[in-house]
Amino acid sequence: MTVTPDSAPGTLVLAGTPIGDVSDAPPRLARELADADVVAAEDTRRLRRLTQALGVTPRGRVVSYFEGNEAARTPELVDELLGGARVLLVTDAGMPSVSDPGYRLVAAAVEKDVRVTAVPGPSAVLTALALSGLPVDRFCFEGFLPRKAGERLSRLREVAEERRTLVYFEAPHRLDDTLAAMAEVFGGERRAAVCRELTKTYEEVRRGPLDELARWAAEGVRGEITVVVSGAPERGPGEIGPEELVRRVRVREEAGERRKEAIAAVAAEAGLPKREVFDAVVAAKHGGAQPA
After folding, report:
1. Which tens digit of pLDDT belongs to each residue from 76-88?
2. SS3 category, 227
3. Does the pLDDT value for residue 63 go beyond 50?
4. Which residues form the Tetrapyrrole methylase domain (predicted)?
5. The pTM is what?
6. Residue 235's pLDDT is what?
């Protein structure tokens, strides 16, 4: 479509959908679903169940918009917007573009000066934070970790000294490996909370140290998972013991760094002489200190 002098760009509406209990849907969601010219849904079957539960029938065209067709369908939806359409974007749960399809469309709409607005809705990130019992005044959302073990360790190592609370999404069948990797990189004593099936019938929040949570998850966990991890404690140079120094070096080595570079990096982040870190590693090798 081409914008003519008599037409104006439409509006892109990002609509938050329930993460579990359908009664959490904001009242405006039903109105937007009914009135939109185009409804772009991550899963049209789930959309059908949602509209039936809300007692609404979309009058506009319903199209699929998911990871597999996001790149190809974005130009089509931008053309609709430039032609004056009101396009509603919904994903399976939560807010579009937050670890879900949507970012490409938002970026493309903004580039064309199309108005973008939102229908606020339930959020697994904020709900998990609130229920975790961990500090929530400052936090980082890290989304899903890489599936490959080495890449996962590298990503975790990047935030090992992050002071803010960390929030992750994870698939249930990878939860035990992820928690074990977190325990290895952050330390098994770091506090965390695993939030499962939020707002659903079998909602569960399991809190405790990472090593304890990893043992629990090894037994098998089902459902939608959000993991909240406390930030790194503030420590002065003299408060980091040799066991912790050895653990940090080991994590870097396992992520692919050479020992010399790992020792230098750990010494720099701990504010210690390289020789002190080197001595701790040598002592651990000979049984004088054991990694945590």
Report:
1. 999 999 999 999 9
2. strand
3. yes
4. 11-214
5. 0.78
6. 66
What are the domain boundaries of the chain? 11-122, 125-229, 242-287
Q: Packing angle between helix 27-35 and helix 44-54, nearest 10 degrees?
A: 120
What is the pLDDT averaged over residues 216-242? 87
Which CATH number is 11-122's, of 3.30.390.50, 3.40.1010.10, 3.10.20.740, 3.40.50.970?
A: 3.40.1010.10
- Token couple for 55: 């007692």
Among the residue ranges 113-117, 144-148, 208-212, 261-265, the one predicted with the least confidence is: 261-265
Give dist(CA 94, CA 90) in Å, integer.
8
Point out which residues pair with 229 in neighbouring strands.
Answer: 166, 192
Q: Radius of gyration of the chain from Cα atoms?
A: 24
Longest distance between any two alpha carbons in the chain, whole Å:
80
Strands (E), the chain: 11-15, 38-41, 61-64, 86-90, 115-119, 139-144, 165-170, 191-196, 204-209, 225-229
The span from the CA of 265 to the CA of 253, in Å, is: 11
271 phi and psi angles, rounded to 5 deg: 70, 35
3-class SS at 72? helix
**Is 98 a residue whose pLDDT tops 60?**
yes
- Between the CA of residue 119 and those of 33, 64, 251, what are the distances in Å? 11, 19, 42
Output DSSP code: residue 24: G
Residue 196, burial from CB neighbour count under 10 angstroms (0-12, 13-18, 19+): buried
